[in-house]
Amino acid sequence: MAVATPASSMSPRTRRKLVRAIQYGVFLAVLAAVALAADWGQIADSFFRLDIAGDMFPRVWEAFGNTIAYTVLAFAFGVVVGVPMALMRISEVAPYRWFATAYIELFRGLPALLVLFIVAFGLPQAFSGMVLPGGVYGQVALGLGLTSSAYIAETVRAGIQAVPKGQIEAARSLGMSHMRTMVSIVLPQAVRIVIPPLTNELVMLTKDSSLVFVVGVTASSMELATFARSELNATANATPLLVGGLLYLLITVPLSMLARRLENKGESR
User: Fold this and answer.
1) How confident is the model over 74-87, as pLDDT tens digits?
2) What is the CB neighbour count within 10 angstroms for residue 152?
3) Residue 123: domain span
4) What mean pLDDT is predicted for residues 208-213?
5) Digit-coded pLDDT (tens) for 87-114
6) C-alpha 88: how far from its chain's center?
7) Which residue from 41, 221, 222, 265 has the highest number of Cβ atoms inside 10 Å of its Cβ?
């Protein structure tokens, strides 16, 4: 006769609870070990100097505003260029498809940092005397916007192709032109589909704005990352990095929560 062991006599539910309790115990033990090994005094002196953080205000708000401005300008450029590129990408006209495909693959494949270099230094050399309107803001809108437009184009294309083809065929059977079908039937539905991923793209652009330093910013045009790095060099302390990171989170966390809420709302329909 087989003798039941304690493990085999457990129900699956009890076994799962035991495994989960062990996992929690291991996790808490690791946290406790890290907490005991850390030099909290040194950590506080390196990252939590309130006097240094206080000296950053109110100047840091200008960098915060610049970060938002760069993000909004690049996103606006990305939408204005990306939507037509998405329509060209699925066009029945072959040259349109070829051009849109080449554009999207080019700017999705190039690092945003390299694109900013090209815009800030390559274009003025290739086209002597060329000056983009808006100075640094114009360079950032074009540099980050080119990269963003390629991703937005692919997002919008996927949203358009997610609309049931039967609705398009029904609209065409009623005598609607291809353009009117797109504007009246397809795009309104595609917008609801692509809003969550576009919100995620806005989050990515907020973080990519930290690359703006390559275009040569002044004290009044610094974004958060450049300002925090400048303060780090001036104070020889990491507190400015913590302040800059918290301010980035002040932008990105609400946007991420909004994206998740929109995704859940879309799935519940």
Assistant:
1) 999 999 999 999 98
2) 27
3) 55-267
4) 91
5) 899 888 899 999 999 999 999 999 999 9
6) 24
7) 222
- 74: tokens are 């690049």
Q: Is residue 174 part of a domain?
A: yes
Length of the chain: 269
Residue 13 is assigned to a structural domain of this protein: no
Find the radius of gyration of the CA atoms of the chain. 26
222 in Cβ contact with 230 (< 8 Å): yes
Nearest to 242 by CA among 231, 253, 256, 255: 231
pLDDT band of residue 39 (cuts 50, 70, 90) is confident
DSSP letter for each residue of 143-154? HHHHHHHHHHHH
Q: Among all chains, which residue has been given the structure tokens 């910013």?
A: 217
* Residue 239 CA neighbour count, 13 Å, CB half: 19
pTM of the predicted model as reported, rounded to 2 decimal places? 0.83
Query: CA 185 to CA 176: how far, in whole Å?
Result: 10
Residue-wise DSSP of 76-144: HHHHHHHHHHHHHHT-SSHHHHHHHHHHHHHHHHS-HHHHHHIIIIIHHHHSTT---TTTHHHHHHHHH
Distance CA 262, CA 267 (A): 9
CA 234 to chain centroid:
30
Q: How many domains does the chain have?
A: 1
Would residue 138 count as lying in a domain?
A: yes
Q: CB–CB of 205/147 below 8 Å?
A: no
pLDDT, position 12:
82
Q: At 44, which amino acid appears?
A: A
